[in-house]
C-alpha cells in the first residue's frame, strides 16, 4: 500500500490509501484490505465509535425536555429584563423561558455558569427574522408596526406573516437546491443548456410554500414516479435526481458517465438524508464509518436502473394550444411519412440492428461504435433531455415503445441514420422527409417538458465495481440499506420508493437529526452538529445532543391535531392520502407548537416557527468579551450570530431596498447583466441578458451555467454548481468590495435608491437620511452616523459640482430635470449604505 | 488620501494585534503545526505565512497549453514512427489498455517535423519551436509525464486541481492558502485566458477555490476591458468620489465595529481598502507603455500573431515582480484532432516566442531563480492518426493520449539543460522516470516550501489535499 501506483484504469479513480495508519493503529488493517464484500461487519463492530457506540446511529431519544435548570432560579428571570435598546413595550421574553428549545440551551449554559444574552432589540430582531424566513429585509412600515405592537404575541404574528409569504419558499429552496447542485446546464466540456430545469426549482418553491411535509417531500423527490397513480407533480419532484451532470463531449464513454451519475445520486442521498459521506465507500470500505463497499453498491443498486426521461408538462399558456394542434400535427406527419413508410421502417430496423450489435460487441466495427456513441451524446442535447434515452429506446422492442417514443426515435433515425444505406436514403429522399418533419415539428405550438426519472424497462443487475472501476465488475449485489441502520420492512420491493420510505421511517436515526440540524444551521449560522454534511465518526459531535434528539423527535412525530389534542393519523407513506389534503395552506400554522408536547408532523414551517420563537434565537448577537476566550466559536449559544448574507441574499436585499426588485415568484431562469468576459469563460457562451423587469428578479432565478457561473454568485461563496453543498462558507474579499462598489447592477441600485429617497422622503436632509437608514438597516441613524453621512453628502455634492457631467451618471433614469442634481447626491448616500458591512449582514 | 494611507497602517497594526490572540492564533498555529492533520481557514486568509520548510521558489508561472499539444511533433522524436507509419499499432503497446482510448481505425502516423539539437546540452526540439529551443540550457524537459484521464475536462481538472472531480481547489488556490499573498495590492493567484475565441473546456472550475474559502480563488485578469472584474469605478464616479465613498464607509463601519466589537468588520474594511488600492495598482500593472521597445519586441507585442500571448507573458513577469504568487496563463487551442500540422504551426507561432522571451527576461532580471515556469497541457497525443471528419489526406490529426507526454520546466530551483524520463520507442507509454500529474504537483509544492501531505483542508469529514492520495516529490527534478 505504500507505493503510489494503485491506479485504477482510466477513470482516474485511485484506490484511496486514505489514512491507513489509523487502521493499523486500530489493529484492523488486515480486515480493511480484505477483498470487497468480505465480512466487514466484524471490522465495523470492533472499531471504536462504530454502530454500537457512535451517537448518530443510536435511536433518537424521545425524552422530555429538561426542566428549568435547578439551582439557578434567577436564570430564567434574567431574560425578562428588556434590553435597553429595545423600544418594545411588550414583554417579549416573558414566555421565553418556557420554550422547550431554551430549556436545553439554558441547561447547557448553566453547566458553564453562563446565561443567554439579552434579547436583541426589536428592530434587529425583525430584520433578522425577516431575512431568515423570507430572505428579504423588512420594509420600514413592517419595522414600525412591530415596534409599536404592544400585543403579547406581536413577534409570533410577524413570524406567522412571514411563514405565509410566498417568498418563504424562495428563501428555503436555496439551501435545498445546494444539496442537489441544481443548475440550468449539463456541466462538463460542452455544458449544454437545460431550458426546463427550472420546473424542478419551481416544484421545490411550491412544495415549501404549501408546507408539504418532509416525509412526502422526500418520497416525491426520490420516488415520485413510483407512487401509486403518480401525478405529473409527483414526478416533477424527481427532478432532484436529474441534477446530475451530463457529459456530451465527443469521445466520452457513455457508461462511465452514467456510472458517475448514479454515484452522484448515492452521494446526494448520503449527504441530504443520512449526513454520511457514503461516496467514500465507492472504491473500498469506508475508512471511518460502518459502510462497506458492498453496502455502497447496495445503495447504488437502488438507482442503477433509473432512467432519465423528460415528459410533456405544458405550462398554463401552452396546454390548450398544443393539444388543439396535436391531431392535425399527427395527421400531417403520417402524410409526410406515408410514401416512404415501408422503406424507412426496413432501414430503421437495420439501423437499430447495427447499433445493438455495436452496443453488445464494442470494438468490432469502429463506424458503428461511433454511431452508438453519438446517439448517446447528442440525443436531446440543449433541451436537457435524458441523453441515454435514445440508446435505451433502441434496446427496447418496438412493440413496447410509446407512440411518442417511437416517433422521436424515428425522427432521430431519419436525421442521423443515412449511414445504414446511403443509396437507399437518397432513393427515398429521406433527408427531405426528415427536413419536412422538422419543419412540421417547429410549427407545432411549443410544449414544455419536465426532466424526471423512471425505473428502466430492463432492470440492470448491479455488481460491485472492484476498486471503484466500473470496468472490473465484482460480486452481484441487490439493492439494500447499510447494516448499521434499521432495515426496511421485510419483503418490501427493492426500489427507490422503499429507500425513500426507509429514509423517513421512524426508526431511522439519521434523517430527522440531519434535517433539523440543517434548519438550525440556517437560523443560527452553525449546526448543532457543525459538520452538517458528516454525522459519521469523523464528523463533529453535537454540541447539544439532547436538544438535537428532541428536535428530531418532535419534527418527525405525527402532528398533534389542535382540535383533539391527540396525534393525527400517522403520516401516510404512500398515496393512500392525497398530499394536498395534508398540506396546510400558508399561514395556517397553529400556535400550539410552543405548548407541549410538540409534534410537528415533518412540517418545515412548524419547525422554523419553533426555532425562531425561542429566546436562544431572539437573543442579541453582540460579542460578549467574557465569552471570547471561553467559547470563541459560540458553540454554547450564549449569543446569536452575525452572518454575512448569501450571494443571492445580498442581491435580493439590494434590489429590495432600492425599489428595483421584481418580486414575481417562480418561472424560468433569467439573465441579469454581467460582464461579457465572465460569459466567455465557459465553452457554451450563452448569456442573453434579460431586459425589463426580468433584470431585477431574485438571485434564486439567475441562470445557473455550470462552467461559467454568474460572477457575483461565485465571489460571494455560492457553491460550485457541480458539487453537493450542505453549508456555504462566508468569505470576505476585495473582489466582493469591487463588486458592491462598481458592478453596474449595484451602482444602478444605488442610483435607484437615491431617486427613491427623493420620492419618499421630501424635506430636510436629516429626515431623508433617517428614511435611508430605515430602508437599508431597519433603524434610524445614530448621531455620529448622521453627522458623518451629512459630511459625505456635502463632499459628494461638491465633487458633483466640480464635475457636472457626472450628475447624469449618478442620477437614476426618469427623475424630473429639476431634481436630477439632488438625486445624484442621494445616490451617493445610497451607494454608501448598500456597501455597509451592516447592510450585507444579518445580526 | 494621506488620511486613508495613515488609516491603512493603523488597520494593519490593529489586525496584527488582533490576530495574535485567541481564535486567530489557534487557527494559525493549527495551519502551521508540523503534524496538524488539517486546518481551517486562517483568520486573515491572505496574510503572508511561512512555508513548511525553506523554499526554492517564491512564485510560479504556469503556461497551461490547454487542449494538449503533441509531444511527438514538438519534443519527443521517435524514428520508429517513420518505420511503422500507416500500420496498426503493434499489439504489445496495447496490452492491458481499456478500449475507449484506441480506435480500431487508427494507424501509426509519422511526424513531418524535423528535430535538431540545441544548447550546450543538445536538447532536441522540433523546428516548430525555435525560440524555446534557444532556452534549452535553462529548461528541464520532462518526457515521462502520464495522467489518468483522456478527456479534456477531467484531464484539465486533474492537472490543475489534482482530481477529475469538480469542486476541488486549484493549485494556485492551494498555494495561496498555504503561503498567503506576498503582494500588497494585487491578488495572490491570477489567471489569464487566451483570446482564441474558444472558451476553456474546464472553465472556471480550473481556478476554483473549491471547498477552500473563495478568497483563494484565482482572479481572472484580462488584458482587454477591465483587467479585474469590476475594477473600474462606474462611469461618472471619479477617483475623489470613490475615495469619498471608501472613507465614509470606513468611518461608518468603524462606528459599527466600536459598537459591536465584531472583528469581521475590520477585515471588511481592509478588503475595501485593498480594492481601492487595486484600482490603482492593477491599471499600473497593465500599463505596458513603460516597457522598453526591445522588451516589447522580444515578447512579440509588435506582431499580430504573438501580441496576445506576448502581452500575457509580459504581464506575468510584471506580476511576479509585484509579488503575485501564482500566475496561470491559458492558451486553449491545442486540440488537434485534424489538420495537426498546420494548426500546430499556428499555435507554436502564437506562443513560442513570447514564452521564450519570458524565460530570458526573468533570467536577465534575476527572477528566474525563484520563479518556477511550467509549460504544458493536460495530456499528450496519440502516435496514431485520427480522422475526425472523414479521411482527408494531409489533414490528419492525433487523438488524446494520457500514457506519456512532455512538459517543460524552468527556474525555481530546477536545474536546466536536462531531459528527464523517456517514453517507449513509439512515444506511447512513459517508461523511465515516470512522473504522474500528482508527482508534478507534489514537486511544485515542495519547491515552494510546502509538504504536499501536510497542506490539507478538512472538508466533509476528510482531510483533502492537492495530490489526493498520491504524489511524491520527484528527486530527479530537483537535482541535476
Low-confidence stretches of chain A: 1-49, 68-96, 567-596
Strand content range of chain B: 5-15%
Average pLDDT number of chain B: 86
- The total of helices of chain B stands at 14
Kindly state the percentage of residues in helix of chain A.
Answer: 40-55%
Total number of helices of chain A: 37
Based on secondary structure, the structural category of chain B is alpha/beta
Structural class by SSE content of chain A: mainly alpha
Note the overall shape of chain A.
globular
Overall geometry of chain B comes to globular
Query: Strand tally of chain B, please?
Result: 17
Oligomer: heterodimer
Through-space gap between termini of chain A: 50 Å
Commentary on this structure:
- Chain A has 843 residues and is mostly helical.
- Chain A contains 37 helices and eight strands.
- Chain A has a two-stranded antiparallel ribbon with strand order 1-2.
- In chain A, strand 1 and strand 2 form a beta hairpin.
- In chain A, helix 9 (167-179) crosses helix 10 (198-209), helix 23 crosses helix 24 (545-556) and helix 29 (647-658) packs parallel to helix 33.
- The model of chain A is unreliable at 1-49, 68-96 and 567-596 (pLDDT under 50).
- With 480 residues, chain B is α/β, with parallel strands linked by helices.
- Chain B has one domain (57-238, 291-474): Alkaline Phosphatase, subunit A.
- Chain B has helices spanning 2-19, 22-32, 71-74, 79-84, 130-133, 152-161, 171-179, 239-260, 263-286, 293-298, 304-321, 340-364, 437-447, 475-478, and strands at 59-65, 115-118, 123-126, 139-146, 189-192, 219-220, 326-331, 371-376, 380-381, 400-401, 405-410, 418-420, 422-423, 430-432, 435-436, 456-459, 462-465.
- In chain B, helix 8 (239-260) packs antiparallel against helix 9 and helix 11 (304-321) runs parallel beside helix 12.
- The longest helix of chain B is centred in the C-terminal third of the chain and has 25 residues, at 340-364.
- The interface between A and B is large, with 112 and 102 residues.
